[in-house]
Amino acid sequence: MLPVGYKKKQMEVKSAFEKANDILEEIKTATPANADELEAFRIKYIGSKGILKELFGAMGTLPNEQKKDYGQLMNTLKAAAEEKVEQLKESFTKGEAKSSAQEVDLTAPAYSLALGTRHPISIVRNKMIEIFGRIGFVVAEGPEIEDDWHNFTALNTPEDHPARDMQDTFFLTEDMQNMLRSQTSTVQIRMMESQKPPIRYIFPGRVYRNETISARAHCTFHQVEGLFIDESVSFADLKQTMLYFAQEMFGKNVEVRFRPSFFPFTEPSAEIDISCFVCDGVGCPVCKHSGWVEIGGCGMVDPAVLENCKIDSNKYSGFAFGMGIERITMLKFRINDLRLFFENDVRFLRQFEGVI
Description:
Layout (H helix, E strand, L loop, with lengths): L5 H24 L5 H12 L4 H7 L6 H39 L17 H14 L4 E2 L5 E3 H4 L26 E3 L4 H10 L4 E10 L11 E11 L4 H16 L5 E8 L2 E10 L16 E10 L1 H6 L8 E8 H9 L12 H4 L7
Parallel strand pairs: 1-4
Antiparallel strand pairs: 2-3, 4-5, 5-9, 6-7, 7-8, 8-9
Helix pairs in contact: 1-4, 2-4, 5-10
């Protein structure tokens, strides 16, 4: 005699297997027509509340000897559903890409691209390099992190010089032997150490000084320095070089004057002034009504600096000069605030479109 409920139990097992096989057939014959229908198919069968989850839950009602076969059937069903989803998803993706490519009109005009413009500092830097290049000066560059020898000692700057104070220079080590260079004169020393005269170079680059940022000063700015060393180089050569540069940069009517000054690495030393190209020397706010505008410093290379670099000061002489690129740029384009160069304000930068 069969146990009570045996027939009912057998019917439930048969029903579970039949339902799983029916679902497997549905999955194999399903034909979602697009990505939306495919997503609905996925949710229906293998979603978190889908049919497969319900069928997996029925395993607990089966007798132990049937669970293995049922589990294998369910794994086959789940694998078939996932494979169907992946295959159709890939085919829909390729179809959309192909359709999108077919929609491109190859005869349509291209979109115009907005072109950028050079920064005013770059414009003037390139112009200065071009001007000095016409008279034989070659560009050389050096590291922005320097040691005491190249930034101070070799340039005839004594230990008690104000420039060595931490209020003026960004030192990187406690022994003050490494720093951010405070001038591109450091590259002059490197060139004199590595080459024999004649030497004719300009040194554009970024420098750093511990200064309060204002309309006229910044803690980082750019310089162009020049160096010419050969036999019989005189102050007259320096004056003609500076006159040539000033007239090429600001106009043929510009005049140059030299005021006595002091720099540790040149002797004699001078400040370079040009006649105001805005008012033609009459007097205006740009030149502070003096008729003259300062553009840099210069002088004959001190014999001690030549000797520091193993150059015979009895045979060779030379001159050096230095100018702030920001200073030249402010004068050329009549900009009254140094900070504008570093703020990346597009309204300011767009004013230089087309300037080369």
